[in-house]
Structure prediction request, 834 residues.
Amino acid sequence: MRLRNFMVVLFFCTGCAFTVAQQITFSARTDRSSIAVGEYVKLTVSLSNARENFAPPSFGGLVVVQGPFDNSSLININGRISGTVSRTWVLTATAPGKYVIGSAKVRVGGGSIATDPITIEVTKATTRPSDPYATRGQSRDPNLFITIASNKNKAYVGEQVVVTYTLYSRYANLETSNYDMPQLDGFWADNVDIGDPKWEDQLKQVNGLQYRVAEIKRQVLIPQRAGQLRIAPFAMQCIVNRTLFNRGAVFDVKSNAVEINVASLPPNPPPSFKGAVGELSMVVKVDRTTVQANEAIEVAVTYSGRGNLKLLDAPALNFPNDFETYDPKVTDRITVNASGMSGSRSYEYLVIPRHEGEYPLEPISFSYFDPRTGAYRTIQGEPLTIVVSPSDGGPTAAVQRPSKSDVELLGSDIRYIRTGDLLLRERDSHLFGSAPWIAGMAAPVLGFVLFVGWRKRRDAAARDIAGTRRRKADSLARKRLDEAAAALKGSDRATFYNTLSKALNGYLADKFGLGPAELTRESILSRFAGNEGGGELAAAYERLMQECEMARFAPVEERPREQLYDDAVALIARTEQLMRA
Amino acid sequence: MKTYTLVLATLLSFTSAYAMDRLQADSLIAQAGRTYAAGDHAKALQLFDSVHTRFYSPALLYNIGNCHFKLNDIPNAILFYERAYKLAPGDVDVRANLDLARQQVVDRVSELPKFTLGSTWAGLRGGNDPDQWARRALWCTLLTFLILALATLATKRSMRRALYAASGLGVLMTLVALGFAAYRHKELTDDSAAIIMTAKVDVRSEPRAASTNLFVLHKGTKVTVLDEEDGWCEVELANGSVGWAPPSSLVRI
Prediction:
């Protein structure tokens, strides 16, 4: 194009002579007087019939998108040659408003010519405005800025937020040097692997301006506490247009800060909630449920979905005590990409039942918070039963003993109350020292003393034989008299007299301690002698005894038997009376 | 019938001055046990207390202590545990709870381990009750004199000797039983030990409010009362410190 213009000029210069000088004009014009944000306006400043350099006008806030482009033309009309030099810019505005393009000035000959200022009305963009972060960055410096963009402004504790750090540049030659990562207070951060930062192939247009864009960094942030959390600005030093001969210009570029409103989780989480937030699912897999003792079982608990998978804790599995358990093997298949953290994390437990039996395992329950619905969800695993059959390894199978550990004291509390019989006793009633107790203690002593006294008296009496005979004389005599009475009734004459005589003799012998041979009239008399009326009694005895003797040996009866019997009874009674007196 | 007893028991618990027989006491205790298990410790305490107006036993005192502990009334819990422990020094449950309750006490007074008959003779069944020993003394006396009476009746010389020896042993046993009964009776009637009941009490050098403040005791601490005069108690700590405190601040065990 330029070459052709130049050829044309050359042709005219060589072929024709400059004949007439034309009138000099200097003007500025735009192709349109009002644009929307992001649209372009073409500014052309033309100088006719003069070849002077002119200074560009001030653009009054408009941004140069392209240009300047120079253009010159020679026109030959009927031998009159006019030449025009023009310079064109493509301008745009990043914000609505009224912009004034200032005057362009040129010095020609002795004076100077100025163009008229042009007013451009910029209205709001009719199309959707581009990235607000970029728009704000652009307002700080339209040529070079950094933005921090987060995919959400509101999040729950534990909900992941993806943050992108992007460098926008309109410079062709840009070097970046040391940069500071912003402070992330209250976040757990994980970097998304985006490789080395490099310019994207496509230019990005922000409000009409084309930028080269490079993603510096991308992070997944997980808020750890509620409140207004702030991502501090990201600062970077850039050197622009450094060449071998030019040191370039150094810019300290600072990005915007991002504030994220973090809401705390709703109250009363389910008991199995341990901080999982996202859209998750759980699968429990047991490789077999029927094993022999001492064989290993693998229990795998897999959490998958999108959420804070890397922050999940191992599930609390309560295996029976007879199971030997090992720490779980954790396998992560978690990818962190532009949409956040997703994938799966599985915990594989190796358990070895040591004894046979049927072991029901508690179902595993897993709770997470779903930020989409703003509610807790609980996944209940299925109950499992593991059947362990006896090991057939025989005696050679090595039995591994579990390592012993102390019983852990989890808490302390008082022991429980006593129930059942409390062995109550009445208050203020004591046995020791009470009157019944003293009486009880004294009673055996007293009893013993009485017993010993009675024994002594009995022994003394046993030693006095004559006395005993005397005391028993009466009762013995009565017994014999009773026999005699029986004989009397039976009219047994011989027995009657026999027993009566025995009763009388025996009584006297016992009473006075006499042997059978001593029972004579004299001896009886002498015994009775000491007592008043004794002689009379002795005589009565003698007569009665004689009568009995007579009757025993001869069939003679002086008196009826009844009278004899009554006499004997009366006599003994009288004797007793006498002896006692 | 059961409900009737229950209603009666409840009524009685409110009018505890009413005479109570053992049957009613047992039903009250069963009800208190259920209340305690349900977690209503205040009501359980009220029921146990109503039984305690008339009856006592180490187990009952222990239960009352438990109620106080659960109601966070540590000084009263310690008081009742101490009373239960006095009656049954070998009881491991009382000991354990007393130790736990003492951990809540602010004052740490190094206490020397004390020899008690109970802990040594805990193996003897019922060896801590003076009445039990009194009953044993009674039986021993009776047996001794029965053997003595038999000895006087024995005809064989060797037999008589053996019986006399046995009765001698009986006399010895009686004396031992009497000794234990007297010892435990003395121990139980000794009410010199006391528990501080108020949150804080200033112990002074003289029985006078204006005298020097020697040290400060807090609720639940065990002291020994040495003397009492003019509305002041002379108390001694386990570490030997002595001072005067108002009697309203403590309750004797």
Q: What stands out?
A: The first strand of chain B starts at residue 55 and ends at 56. The mean pLDDT of chain B is 83. Residues 58 and 84 of chain B are 4 Å apart (CA to CA).
